[in-house]
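Each lists chain and fold; for instance:
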Amino acid sequence: ELRQAKRARRVVAFDDMLFNLHERLTQSPGLPAALRARFPAALIDEFQDTDPLQFAIFSAIYGDASSPLFLVGDPKQAIYSFRNADLPTYLKARNKATAQYTLSQNQRSTQPLLDALNNLFSGNPNAFMQAGLGFQPVGYGNKQRKTLHDETSALQPRSALQLWTLPCDEDDLPLPKMLARQASARACAGEISRLIGAAQQGQINLGAKPLSAGDIAVLVRSHSQGSQMRRALANLNIASVELSQAGIYASPDAEEMTRLLAAILEPTREGLLRAALSTDLMGQDAAAILSISADEARLLEWVTRFVGYRENWLQRGIGVMLRRLMNQEAVSERLLGRPDGERRLTNLLHLSECLHEAGAQQAGPEALLRWLQAQRKLDSRDDATQLRLESDRNLVQIITIHRAKGLEYPVVFCPFLWDGHPGGSASGPEGREYHEEDLPVIDLRQRDAIEKAEDAVITGQISLSRAAENLRLIYVALTRAVQRCYLVVGSYSLAGKDGKPGSTGQSSRSLLNWLVAGQGHDAQQWLKKNNLEPLQIAAAWQAFAEANQPKVNLAMLPQLAPNPFQPFGPAAETLAALAAPAHIPGGWRIGSYSSLAHGASHEGAAVDHDLHVAEAAPNEANVTTVTTEREDDDILDFPRGPVAGECLHDVFERIDFSDPTGWPDAIAAALRSRPQKLAGADSEALRLPRMIQRMLTELLQTRLPAGFALAEVRRGRRLVELEFSLPARRLTAARLTALLQRHGVNAPALAFGSLDGYLRGFIDLLYEHGGRFYVLDWKSNHLGDSQADYGQASMAQAMDEHNYHLQYLLYTVAVHRYLQQRIAGYQYEQHFGGVQYLFVRGVRPEWIDAEGRACGIFAARPTLHLIEQLSALIGAHEVSA
């Protein structure tokens, strides 16, 4: 039914792709042969992580042994059953193989550590509790390893495999489990502090360099163990980074964010408000919250602040609101003052991003809060929600064993592998998962419907399978080290009732103890009850250490309070400020025509709609007096200045040149967005639209120097406000000025210094007509009130004054690169028609000068030589437009 539902909705998941392929392979006799012909050999790496369906696919293709199939894997590293990896499938495939090979050399660990690990896993013939899975010792490879020089080992002996036994309490009884975890974390953090402290004094070197914090890894099973180690390190002033598969919604910061957002949505509920104030984000302690609750004025002040955040959320979205809250409440400063501040701030920013993205899909703030609460319950762990690395500094790495697979570290700490009940992936509520004659089974039967004997067999098999995977996890963890591995071992107790000593049974069943004390024991019996006492466990570890000296050293877990790490630095009196450099080069930035020509520094200057046109006097700015000498709809009476220019540009962007029916709506919309005013005119509401309507009619019917009118240009042949970004590499004013002067361009000397970054701009209009492309720029400059004021001489003066020559040259370079990328066989002379500057107040069909040229239109086409030289001067020939 699920497959049918997916097909009906046209949905395919990865597992469906596998199933469909296997179905076709078994139903289409010619398909396996066709695939073998195309792929005559196959190699599958990490094959221990395969599943039955995947192996069935390759068996169907290569099962007749006519083509080689290589399966590469290490069954001792099969630790991904939660991803459907199935070790019995690997063992079954191995048994069918025509030949088996093994790597006989280890290229990671040093000789002493390698010998110690070989002996640890060889001591128990059934070390991995898995039929068909034995341990084969490996030799020392010839890869060069750095040497760990430790001058402190004379006073504090440390071996390649350093074993620490869990201590006992005052009554000489094993520590309760919780205290044992705390002692392990504290001791490992103290040793890390000692190592990096001695290294910075030159006493511990890795090769030619001091051992650094980044050379040390702490391997853990779970996020909670990682957090405990992180706190222990932070207590000793040691920075660390936690690498895990944990999702952001499982973090404490997600819980605090939930409480904060709930209070923002209902700030008048005092309980919610107090809960939000108690978070680390808001930073109020119990005394402060009690004081606020007792002071009505202060309580009202906080309610008002949260009401403001709520309004900001409703109006501008959660991303803007959270940024405002962080600034006003000094959240960043408060969090970064904590030992784990970088981690907390990274989580907060990550949550803000996730909430901002989710906000676009939710109906409102209340729905978004419910969504966050649901995500915390689901604990989503896709790539987008996985905890991010908070720092790239050289830090101690805390990493889960699953994530550490395939990696190596000079020094490794394993503080919690002694746990006899480490947890793991129990079967889900749908059924119990186990194997029956190497076939994976999901048993959906009710437990009370199964005979006790059969149920006991199934339960035992599930426990054995889970224990075997945990043993493989131990193997992966211990084999990550190159020079030294610290391993905490021994016994602990569970908390007893009424203060009485608790049981050590769980401790005795520890899988780490199984490696040295499990010889002669049945695996399933060991997991149920092995009757070994803590003294017997301790004796087994002692015997193992003595048999492997000096490669192995066994000592009591350090219990003295460790010394905080003191970073080494120069004495304050030796510090002095460096002399200021004579010249500080400009940083990477975005420039534009306006920044080059006029020194404008803001990025918005790239949108240059007559930005630097001189406005009228203050009392006339944006206002034009009524003139009786002209018709009242003449565009010459239209307001002046940048805002008026923006309004006219808006009209040109909205209209279809060849369809006047849509012009009135476009004109009305432009005037609404950028209102204009005529001084002393009672009918301005009608005059302004008529001015623009007449201007459009006259301008679009005027023939351009290229021999056509803009009314002939179809809308689909236009690109409006074409944005471009040209990479600029050390573009200087002196070199640009020199180039323009060499080519006779009438441009004033430039003084923008230099530009290293991007040259950005927006072209008013790029259009195509008759197979040629033209750059057009609308100019609303008021050059005068007569036809002569828009002749070639007046326009040339305006072009020079505003340095428009530089503007159209930059636009031409951008279009030249743009067309090179998009037109096959592009030729500048053939495809580029030139540039056209239309001074819109003077473009009318009847305004023609003595030489027959239309007034108000400046046209030019720069030479290809100039454009190519300018393009090369700007920099890399790339353009995004």
Residues 600-606, 614-628 have pLDDT under 50 and may be disordered. The first strand starts at residue 42 and ends at 44. Residues 452-478 form the longest helix (27 residues).
